[in-house]
Structures are given as structure tokens and as C-alpha cells.
Amino acid sequence: MSLQPVAAALHRVKRVLERRPDTGLHDDAPASARWERGVRSVASHANGTRIETDMSTEVGGTGDRVTPGWLFRAGIASCAVTTIAMRAAAEGIELSALEAHVGSRTDMRGILDMPDVDGTRVPAGPREVHLRIRVAADGVAPERLRAIVERACGCSPIPSAVADATPLDVQIDIG
Fold first, then answer.
1. Is 145 inside any structural domain?
2. In the chain, what's the furthest Cα-to-Cα distance?
3. In 3D, which of 95, 79, 90, 102 has the Cα closest to residue 145?
4. Any domain includes 107
5. Which of 162, 157, 169 is nearest to 104 (CA)?
């Protein structure tokens, strides 16, 4: 599939933002999740999309749905692929392949609010996250593809949120 329509759309948006930079800041579509039972929840988008999550059997789930942690990794991977495709389109490059694989390593003690052996808090989130990109484009030098991927990943929202440790504001409503 040609990336030319993507390039044209990006060009239009950039022109608008050059004239009116204040229009670039916007509220993102919110995600909602509702507890179902056990450790199962349903995440919802305003457009009607629903994604059911559950945990592994080791922690009381059924293991028959993806976990919230997997959605996190999937979000990183799909966001990276999207921004790389956008960057390639903006540079007039037709990609022949693009894949992202995200792995992470998490200490389960953090999720269970267990301290480390020395008594310090064990973080509940991943200790490390790895993003691996495979990209190809006929007739494009590897250095250029590498530069496109690096630049795109630097402005990819979800990978950037992880790399920059975006603060999380938690508000609690009781009742």
C-alpha cells in the first residue's frame, strides 16, 4: 500500500500547525476500564471498541485474555510502527516491511506489594523494556532507514512516554 495519502495528510497538518501552533495541543481520546469479576476488566473507547483483559491463572485469572501489561507492550509496538510509517511517508519512502517487537521484564513482587529482601519497594512496572524494529525499503540505504527509525521513535508518543517517564496524576472518587 502506498504511503502517499499519509504523506499528503501529514503535510496538511504540518502547514496548519506552522500557522497555528496552539492547535497542536489537544486532549487525547480517553480510555475507560470497568472491572468485570475476579481480575477481568473491559477497556472501552468512545467509538465502541472493547478489549477484555484478564490475568494468568497464577494470580487468579483465567488466562484466556490478554493482560493489561500485554496491552501496554502492544501500545508501544503499534505506536512505534505508526510513527515510523508516518516518518517514512513524510520522506517519500515506500516501506516493504515494518515490524516492532516489544518485550519487558517485570518483578511480580511489585504487583503483589512485596518488598525486596533489603526491605525496599519493588516497582510494579517493568524493570526494563526492549523495542526491536525490523524495517525494509527497496533501494534505501540502511543508514537512512536507521535514521528514520531513530527519529520516529524519538517522537512516538507511547515510547516517548515510557522513555521520559510521564508523570501519572491519580484522582480517586469514592462511591
1. yes
2. 60
3. 95
4. yes
5. 162
Task: Identify the sign of the CA torsion 160, 162, 167, 170.
Answer: positive
Range of the domain at 89: 4-19+68-163
Residue 2 has pLDDT above 90, yes or no: no
Retrieve residue 39's grid coordinates.
Answer: 481480575
Total structural domains within the chain: 1
- Collapsing DSSP to helix, strand or coil, 71 comes out as helix
Q: Which residues are bridge partners to 40 per DSSP? A: 37
Handedness of CA 115, 121, 124, 128 (dihedral sign): negative
pTM: predicted TM-score of the whole model, two decimal places: 0.89
Q: What is the CATH number of the domain that holds 107?
A: 3.30.300.20
Q: What is the mean pLDDT of the chain?
A: 94
| 34 within some domain | no
What is the arithmetic mean of pLDDT over 99-116?
95
Amino acid at 120: T
